[in-house]
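Tutorial, part two.
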Amino acid sequence: MRFINVKKWMWLLLVVPAMAMAQQSTSIDAGKRAAIKDLLNAIDADKLVQAIGEGAQEQSKQMVPAILEQALVQNKSLTEAQKRAAVPTLQKDSIPKLVDQAGKVFTSDNFKNDAIQAQYEAYAKYYTTDEIKDLTKFYKSPTGQKYIKVQDQVGQDVVGGLMRKYMPQAIQATRTLAEKDVAAVKPAK
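Running the prediction step on this input gives:
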């Protein structure tokens, strides 16, 4: 079982809404902007933005088959028979090409700049300058540095333990319901 990079997804959940807020940019006073800059350096925000972009790009790649299927289904110039006949070629030729190109926007300078700006906006909105300085002090401390280094492992331990405990139960419950549905099917006469 492949674990989700917890830090990446936590930041994705925090930054994507914040990026929308950045569109409504408010001015941040110079002292607060400097404090946020210091905090972003302490938490290595550039690496976090890169991780967010990589996670979003990977999600984009995983969506390629569904996007291609939707484009094929919605195509009005091909008959249903032509669409069915095109599937093997599209799977062989188009999917690899589309996967290679998917989510490139998440590696662009515009995305990176917007992600950093979104963090400035979010921190400015929710924290005072003194609170930002306190956070920076924490993240620069040995404990803060350790937190940054091990938070993924802590998250993986928590999620992994819960999944090992509850996933078999979830699968069994679904299997029981599926078996009831299958048993209820009346054979065609």
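Residues 142-184 form the longest helix (43 residues). In part three we will examine how such features are distributed along the chain.
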